[in-house]
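hiii, so i know i said id send this last week but things got crazy w the move. better late than never?? heres the sequnce for the chain we talked about at the cafe, plus the structure i predicted for it. fair warning i was half asleep when i ran it
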Amino acid sequence: MTEEIVASFDYQIEKDDFKIAGSASSHIKKILKQLGLPNPLVRRASIIAYELEINLVIHTVGGAMHLEVHPNCVVISTEDMGPGIEDVDQAMTEGYSTANDTAREMGFGAGMGLPNIRRCSDEFSIRSTFGTGTWIRSEIHVG
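okay and structure toks below
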């Protein structure tokens, strides 16, 4: 990845804030379109950002999402303040979810977030310490 940063944005995401859930990912989509990035890349980045944002709202006590746009890639990452993922391999399984009843009643918690993020990424990393928090990084190559 090149060191030059074309654009960089940080977003604070609050636990259970369903009223504005999706606003950070909508902003990311808008920025990428304004920068003239190809539609397929914008679509993938939008999916990644939305899934990351909703995961922060549903599964964490809050956290941050960061966007970096470089000439050759788009990087979207999140870091939360807990509770962390007990079994990352299980969490990466399609259909597995720890979403609470409230989130499920609102149509969230199908267990597709992390698998969708990995599928839409050219490079994907996740680190989690149960009881502490989780860090996720997704990179999409331009071109």
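btw The longest helix spans residues 39-59. thought thatd interest u
miss u guys!!
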